[in-house]
Amino acid sequence: MVRYRGPRLKIIKRFGDLPGLTRKVVLKKHNAQGKETGDQKTPKASAYKIRLNEKQKLRYNYGVTESQLLRYVREARRRKGLTGFLLMQLLEMRLDNIIFRLGLAPTIPAARQIVNHGHVLINKKRVNIPSFQCRPNDSISFSAKPKAIALIKSNLNQGENATSNDNVLNSHLEFDQKLLTGKILNLVKRKDLRFKINDMLVIEYYSRLA
């Protein structure tokens, strides 16, 4: 399954807020009595559908394909610890997500584009692979091209003016706005996971495949 490139508003209408996918929000409509028009009772979802929806939310938010997510689940299972948290850790330590968490891009797709264009340096070496797994003590800097620097500064300014707390810097990251350099201090911890999801439902969904 390829990465989703369709209307993002359609996805958040179905699954709710996905800060990694888009900053757009769905405005709730009200009828003449002031009640939300979406208040109608919906049929109870099956256990399979509940797990499927959690998996889809995870996939859309981080912008990974089905095959990529399955590989992350398998890798998480090989490691020691809670499989659900290890899966989230693998996704959070992706380079495109780190760029997003540093506030250098408004969304993960925008961060992926910055990486794809070769603007990002890890330990002073150019890396253009969005799925690159960042490690503790990795340093992040950027190409000296004027366009790249202007884009990073523009995104930083937009992030400062945004009202959302999704890009509040986590304790495992640090960033120097004057030098435009960042550093990975540690692996992300459970308390620093901004995207709230029932990761164990995702693991249960893949139990028949992974």
Automatic annotation (TrEMBL):
Keywords (A to Z) from UniProt: Chloroplast, Plastid, Ribonucleoprotein, Ribosomal protein, RNA-binding, rRNA-binding
Gene Ontology molecular function, alphabetical: rRNA binding; structural constituent of ribosome
Keyword presence, Amino-acid biosynthesis: no
A single cellular component GO annotation: chloroplast
Domain RNA-binding S4: 93-157
CDD domains: S4 (cd00165)
Any GO BP: translation
Residues in Small ribosomal subunit protein uS4 N-terminal domain copies: 3-92
Gene3D superfamilies named in the record: Ribosomal Protein S4 Delta 41, Chain A, domain 1, RNA-binding S4 domain
InterPro entries recorded: Ribosomal_uS4 (IPR022801), Ribosomal_uS4_bac-type (IPR005709), Ribosomal_uS4_CS (IPR018079), Ribosomal_uS4_N (IPR001912), S4_RNA-bd (IPR002942), S4_RNA-bd_sf (IPR036986)
Compartment(s): Plastid, Chloroplast
Residue ranges of the TM segments: none
Known partners and oligomeric status: Part of the 30S ribosomal subunit. Contacts protein S5. The interaction surface between S4 and S5 is involved in control of translational fidelity.
Family, as annotated: Belongs to the universal ribosomal protein uS4 family.
Biological role: One of the primary rRNA binding proteins, it binds directly to 16S rRNA where it nucleates assembly of the body of the 30S subunit.
Protein name: Small ribosomal subunit protein uS4c
Taxonomic lineage of the native organism: Eukaryota, Sar, Stramenopiles, Ochrophyta, PX clade
